[in-house]
């Protein structure tokens, strides 16, 4: 049929088609296998229906070409390219097929209706329509085989006690010569090749059975039974296992030996200390990797020795570290020359530039890592560690020099190498790379401290001199140094105990703020810096795997402590706070995720309390000194210029919410708001983003603080919101205040209290006003280039002008005047700029007008659906399918019904016929009886 | 027994013993009342309920319930029926009993405004059950009973939360007839007090406060006649109507069945006649009982609200009314036009009240043909300095979007709106800016002439902004000659969502329009929440500059 179908389409006269199909079926013409496509053959497609008997084939073809079988329906209008289904068909054939199917299924069911029982066909795969009959048979066969295989004891076919040919009572089947020869060959190959062994001859050839049962040769004589094979396998595996164990043991001993020897070699290895650094001038690539030189902290080395005794417990971590080092070590490279000062400066510069570029990209909201250079923190750092600060050239001692050079470049070019070298030891240089800010902090603190630091420095610093900063190479000489360090450590401990202030040298890493406070118990506020520094040194991330977790908790403690110091200590210890912030910054740098989490939880807390306070409407909802300090710390730790940042963005939102929604109820509130504005200014100092809330707040405060009745809400310039329902009047009562010479600046610690005395309030308000004016000046500077400068600052200009109608204290007056001046100038400048460049935001090519040409489909088909709406077309498709299926099902059901009715009718007819027959039979009998009777009667009568 | 009463009891320790004694006494009194000879004991019980003599709430409570039991027994026995012969001895007793009963009811109503919520709620319960029994007895709603209750409720000085809840949830909201009568009586009370003009402003305010607190939470106002199906007092006519209603579905089927069975001949004509009669009477019934008619319900609702709005309202109530007006009041009014004056007046108030009135006004304009002169002018002035900072911001913008959605509006009007919105965005919180930007985009898209605002082809710009911010008339602001510099500043906004959104103006205008709903209903807190809960895909970036010293003074 497939063959003929093709031809139907191709047309041709009926005769031609008949001929073709006959040839295809192989009834006439040449028969060749080639006529079937190779593919078909491969696939095992059966050639044709009834391929064996010509008569079958012919009958099929006859049916095919019987014109009375085919029904065609003429369409009224032929549409080009339109396929209409159901125009042709073979109703008779289809009917017959359906009838037969029904007979198989429906009829059987009908007959079985009401019958209970029967035979359940449990043959394998009988009810599985997926299996072809062949497969089914195959499965059955294997099943049967398996079943038989189990019961073997009395099976005559079994190999074990096979009956067969014998020779001298020996089974001939056991003697397979190929097996044996094989064995021979594999077992001893040393024997003279080519000829058969004498042995073999004696054993194998007829008559030589005497040896066959003796000893080892027994197995080779007969094929092995399964049990034997298994045994053999087990034996072998056991043997292998033993061998493996032996080898392992050997390795173990060898390694132990090596370990013992290694200590000796180690020293050698290290003194070679072998990292090669290509020259900057040689390749740009290297210079780039160089540029990624980490600010990676490296104080771990100097403390390594000190920590050694602590870490004896986990000696394997030592080993691990060593292995790591060796892995990262590049071996046998020629050494480099020392870099010149310019080169190092160049590197530094590049590094900073790169960081700057990354920052700018983030500011625009782009992924900082998509840039070519890889400055991803994690990987970057590893690389940096590999590449950076490696000892160069003939460095035995000049690492020290190098570090200082680094320092120099970092501090800027103003300082020369000599300067630093001279002054190096004055400063607290112990964290040479990253902690220079501490140095400056320490400078600020008192002299005693410095002394201590000096001794501190001696202890810690010395080992580092010989060491590589970043690579954590353990020196061969480390043993010696360790001893020194230990000795020194003891010494200093002694001295420390003798000193006036007892700051211990080792602490448990505090995991809660209470613990930390315990450590700090009895110490001055400033000493926190030292303690923190020591903790950081003791628990440096690279000193142990567990230190990371410790520092992670410590950073939280540190942040808590900053808040604690800010809220409890008066006057506010600025230096201490700053250095604590710096420490937080450093730790956060090592643990960015943890730091982010810490600050995020803090922010959530702050936001929650603010919300609560705002809701309860009692007390000041503004962030207090503690919160402001934390926000400040946050701004220092995370980059505030990023477009979005997981920590900074919520922080900014929080601040803006505070500025916009918190009700101003006292001078303190204004002050806190001012500091928030200051923070905003700090945050946006780089990105210069527009913060409406800050400007609104500043202008609001101007209105709040202006002397009574200066502003009437109706005429208030600008669009910033102003709330009328202020219970408290914050207006400045006496704008001139002649008695005070100078208006003091407002400080953060002034805002720690909740209420203000009335007699101080006027001065406080004046200083607040001064703060507002200063901040406004700054904001004006910040937004000097914003496009809508006129719209933003013109109302402010009006306000200031209006404020100047009153006479002020001379300081304020002066500041107001300057601000007004600046505003005037800036606004004028902006307007000038606008005349030159009008607003053109759409200066790209015009958008082409949409063209509504009809969409032309190549090879359009009526049957295809060209719905552009995918969903709709799919829906329609499914709808059509449902309709089709439904119709089909209905048709089938109808046919089923008809069939059933037919069958029932047939049955009834049959029954009737039977009955008729029966009645007829009875009647005939009766009739014949009657006839007989009558006949007898007639006879009697006669 | 409610908690507070117990507390009071324990606080006065000596009264515990007293209370037990009195309770015993109450019990004995109650028991004695089963005999008609001891009727005078009623007086003793009455005395116990009056708070002037007994301070213990529990005693009052017990006495109140005892009396309730006693009187309901009388009622079922018919002892309270008006006597045939008032002069006879029994008649006198009955009259006396009736007077006692009325004073009992009065006392109960007094208890409604008692300071103890533990007494208020049971008092209400007893009152309502009495109303029920009386109405069922008299076969009509006992309005002479219900009206004083409503009066006591709306004039209640101590409308406690439990009482309010009980009244609303168990009665007014639950039953259609109670609600209907409540509306009617409340309206009546309010109009009468206003007409009389005797009451002081403060009292009127309390009345308004009470009524509003009740009508505010009535959610069960039906919109379909079929929804009238819960009745407190099932009068026979109502029952009939309900039964008919239930039957209505089944009746026809039955008919069909009988047709199928072919038993037509068996149904007598008389019965059929009865059926039709019933139908007619049903219709009549409908006309009779207003409780069953939605129209009457609406009328009561309307009169109540209008009476309420005539009272002096506090600003809070005023705003709340406006807030629910368009959704919960206007649809149920019979004549929404009655609210025209109210709404236009509120729209002219300015500020947030105007914003709120806008919604109702919108419905009146679109559906009831209200003509509001200078509507757009007023709308323009609504865009004042506070509009971006109020709570109803999103609601306002939704309406503003509707009002400005026509493409037939003059371009200079649209330009004025755009410019004003842009100007306001300079001081707006991010949540508002986030609405303003797509809003302006949509307007620009609808009115391409306004594209001039963001793109000027003139060689030279104007130094002075021609736009006049203080001009109240949007047609004369000359906004069309201005430029939207504000939008450029917004693209430097500190919040990334705002700034990126603002950048759409410098890109090609390819998007047909923004769906404003996506940008509505944000606040600082929602922004904060989304930002802080945003999942971090990578490590947060860190600052690379070492912290410098900070400023600690200003």
UniProtKB/TrEMBL annotation, chain A:
Compositionally biased tracts (Acidic residues): 249-262, 297-308, 394-406, 425-473
Q: Where is the stretch described as Disordered?
A: 1-55, 178-474
UniProt keyword list? Nucleus, Ribosome biogenesis, rRNA processing
Keyword Nucleus assigned to the entry: answer is yes
Provide an example Pfam family for this protein.
Answer: Nop14
Start-end of Basic residues biased regions = 35-44
Q: What does this protein do?
A: Involved in nucleolar processing of pre-18S ribosomal RNA. Has a role in the nuclear export of 40S pre-ribosomal subunit to the cytoplasm.
Stated name of the protein: Nucleolar protein 14
UniProtKB/TrEMBL annotation, chain B:
Superkingdom field: Eukaryota
Q: Could you tell me which Pfam families the record lists for this protein?
A: CBF
Which InterPro entries does the entry link to?
Answer: ARM-like (IPR011989), ARM-type_fold (IPR016024), CCAAT-binding_factor (IPR005612), Noc4 (IPR027193)
Q: Principal place where this protein is found?
A: nucleus
- By its UniProt entry, which Gene3D superfamilies does this protein fall under? Leucine-rich Repeat Variant
Supply the alphabetized keyword list: Membrane, Transmembrane, Transmembrane helix
Membrane-crossing segments per the record: 396-418, 424-444
Q: In which residue ranges is the amino acid composition biased (Acidic residues)?
A: 266-275
- What is the membrane topology listed in the Swiss-Prot or TrEMBL record? Multi-pass membrane protein
CCAAT-binding factor domain boundaries: 354-502
Annotated region (Disordered) at 247-288
Signal peptide positions are none
Localization, per the record, is: Nucleus membrane
UniProt record, GO biological process: ribosome biogenesis
GO cellular component terms listed in the entry, alphabetical order: Noc4p-Nop14p complex; nuclear membrane; small-subunit processome
* PANTHER family attached to this UniProt entry: NUCLEOLAR COMPLEX PROTEIN 4, NUCLEOLAR COMPLEX PROTEIN 4 HOMOLOG
The family line of this record is:
Belongs to the CBF/MAK21 family.
* Name of the protein in its database record: CBF/Mak21 family-domain-containing protein
Q: Which organism is it from?
A: Phascolomyces articulosus
